[in-house]
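A.,

Following up on our hallway conversation. Structure tokens first:
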């Protein structure tokens, strides 16, 4: 218990440090040209998807401001022209009004999880074009699985969140969707809000050099995972991925498995840490900053998106799995890693199969993975990764994203 409290204390100290540095620095920072257009992004926690939006827009002379609670400062300073912190929901509208009065704001992009962030912004809807950048949707999971939402009282999938999402999707001026999952949801529910899909992408400023050899980086094959992990104490049908039950398979396969959990979650896995002390093929790491994770991943041979989810998994629908491209997918490409993914994730599997830049592995555990790896032309696969990440370059998306937001803005002006 004392170790847990001490570890949580470290996370709190890190967050406070970022906030103090940010608040002090932003007082003296003046990176915004008042004559150029500005888009405001609002999140609870900043994700790589938002950084890429900002970078893609920057190449088209559009400036970006981030309003968030958690972020990786000072890295975000390189991406956004200005950063503001919100502590209470009521802070959001006050901050947005102040920024709109000062700069040439052409649109505000809110988010979900919780949807109350965008519900608050709807109070100001008549003052500017309001869009949502979609990451995940509680309503979508409930709809496509025909779930009883009352069974999810302690989850991000709950009755209040679902109803608020419906209001947001039908009230905003446009939606920047992560995948075709949301377009399908809109079609089936006759929602006419303008929507366009912008899949997560890569930025060449994060690209790491690739060594095009044909063997393992170290003495044995290694596999890395970067992202959310669930403790083994939670029910598997609501908690995916979990890796504790797979530890023996990595040992049997003689494949080193390295886990980098999401930021602010790295001290939640005492069982994983205990296993890493007794299993030489199972390695539990601390989370790393946005740039540091890409550099760290270069020492491994593959990046894992996911093995097969449990058959009774209920947190995300098959429709979600079919269309999604995970943020980690592009993190691995930026680090120069071939990717391993289950065929359940159809869109990602399709991309890797076409580019020959990874392994489609149909299994709930890594049993048999070493044999698959040794059947592949790893040298050519690494060369294909280099080509694939260029095709997902964020620069290719900037013009389309800017055009969509401008279109929404023009429609707004007609009202």
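Then the amino acids I'd put at each of the 415 positions:
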């Amino acid at each position: 218990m004392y170790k847990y409290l001490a570890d949580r204390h470290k996370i709190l100290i890190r967050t406070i440090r970022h906030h103090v540095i940010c608040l002090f620095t932003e007082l003296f920072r003046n990176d915004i040209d008042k004559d150029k257009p500005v888009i405001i992004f609002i999140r609870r926690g900043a994700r790589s998807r938002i950084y890429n939006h900002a970078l893609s827009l920057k190449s088209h002379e559009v400036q970006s401001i981030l309003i968030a609670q958690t972020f990786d400062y000072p890295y975000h300073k390189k991406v956004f022209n200005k950063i503001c912190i919100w502590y209470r929901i009521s802070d959001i509208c006050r901050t947005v009004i102040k920024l709109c009065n000062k700069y040439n704001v052409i649109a505000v992009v809110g988010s979900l999880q919780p949807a109350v962030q965008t519900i608050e912004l709807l109070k100001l809807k008549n003052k500017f074009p309001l869009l949502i950048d979609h990451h995940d949707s509680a309503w979508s999971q409930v709809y496509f699985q025909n779930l009883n939402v009352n069974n999810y009282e302690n989850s991000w999938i709950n009755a209040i969140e679902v109803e608020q999402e419906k209001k947001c999707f039908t009230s905003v001026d446009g939606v920047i969707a992560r995948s075709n999952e949301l377009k399908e949801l809109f079609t089936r529910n006759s929602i006419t809000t303008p929507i366009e899909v912008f899949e997560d992408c890569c930025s060449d400023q994060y690209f790491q050099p690739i060594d095009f050899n044909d063997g393992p980086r170290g003495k044995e094959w290694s596999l890395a995972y970067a992202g959310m992990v669930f403790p083994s104490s939670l029910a598997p049908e609501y908690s995916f991925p979990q890796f504790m039950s797979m530890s023996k398979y990595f040992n049997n396969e003689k494949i080193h498995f390295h886990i980098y959990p999401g930021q602010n979650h790295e001290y939640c896995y005492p069982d994983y840490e205990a296993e890493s002390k007794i299993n030489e093929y199972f390695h539990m790491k601390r989370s790393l900053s946005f740039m540091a994770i890409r550099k760290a991943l270069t020492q491994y041979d593959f990046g894992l998106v996911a093995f097969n989810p449990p058959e009774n998994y209920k947190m995300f629908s098959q429709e979600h799995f079919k269309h999604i491209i995970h943020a980690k997918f592009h993190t691995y490409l930026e680090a120069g890693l071939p990717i391993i993914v289950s065929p359940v994730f159809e869109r990602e599997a399709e991309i890797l199969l076409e580019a020959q830049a990874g392994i489609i592995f149909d299994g709930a555990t890594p049993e048999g993975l070493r044999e698959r790896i040794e059947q592949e032309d790893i040298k050519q696969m690494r060369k294909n990764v280099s080509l694939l990440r260029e095709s997902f370059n964020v620069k290719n998306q900037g013009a389309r994203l800017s055009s969509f937001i401008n279109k929404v803005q023009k429609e707004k002006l007609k009202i």
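The domain at 204-391 is CATH 3.40.50.2000 (Rossmann fold). Curious whether your intuition agrees with the design.

B.
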